[in-house]
Write a structure and sequence with these properties.
Layout lengths: L1 E6 L2 E4 L4 E9 L6 E7 L6 E7 L4 E3 L7 E6 L4 E6 L8 E11 L2 E6 L3 E6 L1
Parallel strand pairs: 2-11
Antiparallel strand pairs: 1-3, 3-8, 4-5, 4-9, 5-6, 7-8, 9-10, 9-11
Amino acid sequence: QVQLVESGGGLVQAGGSLRLSCAASGSILSINAMGWYRQAPGKQRELVATITSGGRRNYADSVKGRFTISRDNAKNTVYLQMNSLKPEDTAVYLCNYNTERLLRRTDFWGQGTQVTVSS
């Protein structure tokens, strides 16, 4: 099992910045991916950004150039720096940890942290 603890959400004005953190603990495998998804009311969960243990990054088109994902493998922690925030970024942001072994993917999720961007 893997436990994920998120922090850093809050209320910010449009154009502002926030930094999310997510610390993983438990049965951490050396090869994994961590990232952030978000879910707004009435909408499906969507990928925001992911980063592998090898450092490969992937971003949703809607956040490219504004958000930066990074990680500290020694601390099993992933960060999401969010700049130039827009009201449409308002959502619950969920941390994800996943591994693949023998073609089987296993996902773990955090409880989520609310990000609200006011116009």
